[in-house]
Amino acid sequence: MTTIGPATGRTLRVAAQVALNAPSIFNTQPWRWVVEDHAMQLWADRSRQLLVADPDGRLLTVSCGAALHHARVALAVAGHHAQVRPLPDPAEPDLLAEVSLGTDADPGTEDWAAYAAISQRRTDRRAFTGQPVPVAVIQRLIALTEREGAHLAVLRGGEIDDLAILAARAAELQFADPAYRHELAAWTLTAPQSPANGSGVPAETAVSPSARRVPIREFAPPGGSALDPGSENDGGTLYAVLFTDEDTPSAWLRAGQALSALLLAATAAGLAGSPISDVTEHTLTRERLRHVLAGIGAPQLAVRIGYPPDGTPPASPRRRLGEVVNLSS
Ligand SMILES: Cc1cc2nc3c(=O)[nH]c(=O)nc-3n(C[C@H](O)[C@H](O)[C@H](O)COP(=O)(O)O)c2cc1C
């Protein structure tokens, strides 16, 4: 039997706990951690894959990448520069990464800011205000994305109109498919949440349908409770596409880490954001989005970032640590 050093094991379990706050597609939290002596493995949990919206498990892997980045932030503030072994291995495709404590390093102000943002961040689907995102923040989001091995294409003028057309088309194509509607309903929480539930998108965090600069995915069931999109018009909202050079599971994992890094940095700067992935879930709209990027890479998802109106959307539920962590034996 492997024995887990108490301090190491505790630090890794805390990192896994913090990682539960990461954003994930439909709030599926599709990961599992196996805590070993001095390291923990990140596994994809295929039982939580969206087989209709995400048949290849691409957005599942992006979500796992976001959890991995959250765990790295937790380890950084605990004084460790986490070492991530480059996986997945084609022989073991569900084993996505191995994280060990790495070298000791004093946390910097960036690490503390990212850590503080973890509990504040929410996917905010309301319309953002007309105040533009400062250029310095945009540059920082681009730099953070590059640091994680992905790229951020900031859309301007006509490109935002292209994104809006593609997002509307993606919604049309998906809602025409009964299997998609069924999957969406299965992961949209309309009943009061039981504490055991721990996953899915609460209807109160979805916005009610309205004319938007770029359409937002409709989770809210007709007549169900939903957040008021507010009276702002997204005038200052930054729309960007997160993309990678390759379209492989390791690139998806990098994209997820980049997504987490940029959402936390935006939160720390007083901004809010929400991913827009439906536009990449249908082959046709994803291919068109690749053209919007002039074919320079593989679009993984779009994001919108901006200054939110007053108030904060409610928090979405999370699974319990015991459901996502196994101790190796
Ligand atoms: C890969 C990925 C794709 C997502 N796609 C969308 C989307 O298309 N529309 C949306 O409103 N939210 C999207 N989200 C946000 C999730 O719905 C959200 O993270 C989850 O419901 C948990 O809520 P929280 O982020 O407020 O903790 C996505 C998140 C991830 C990681």
Radius of gyration, whole Å: 19 Å
Beta-strand proportion: 15-25%
Q: How many DSSP-defined strands? A: 11
Share of helical residues: 25-40%
Main sheet: strands, sense, barrel: 5 strands, mixed
Residue ranges: pLDDT <50 for 5 or more in a row?
none
CATH architecture of the largest domain: 3-Layer(aba) Sandwich
Mean pLDDT: 92
Distance between the termini: 5 Å
Find the CATH topology of the largest domain.
NADH Oxidase
Structural class: alpha+beta
CATH H-level superfamily title of the largest domain: NADH Oxidase
Strands ordered across the widest β-sheet:
3-4-2-1-11
- What's the total helix number? 9
- What is the number of independent domains? 2
- Elements, N to C (H/E): HEEHEEHHEHHEEEHEHEHE
CATH class of the largest domain: Alpha Beta
Heteromolecules bound: flavin mononucleotide
Shape: globular
If you had to describe this structure to a student in words, what would you say it looks like?
With 329 residues, the protein is α+β, with helices and mostly antiparallel strands. It folds into two domains: 6-121 and 317-327, 3-Layer(aba) Sandwich (NADH Oxidase); 135-306, NADH Oxidase (3-Layer(aba) Sandwich). The chain is built from nine helices and eleven strands. The chain has helices at 6-19, 58-77, 109-120, 135-147, 157-175, 178-187, 249-268, 283-292, 321-324; strands at residues 31-36, 39-44, 80-86, 95-104, 151-154, 188-189, 201-202, 238-244, 272-276, 298-306, 325-327. Strands 3-4-2-1-11 form a five-stranded mixed beta sheet. A hairpin with a 2-residue loop joins β1 and β2 (39-44). The mean pLDDT is 92. Bound molecules: flavin mononucleotide. Flavin mononucleotide (FMN) is lined by residues 23-27, 59, 62-63, 66, 122-123, 125, 201, 216-217, 274-278, 301, 316.
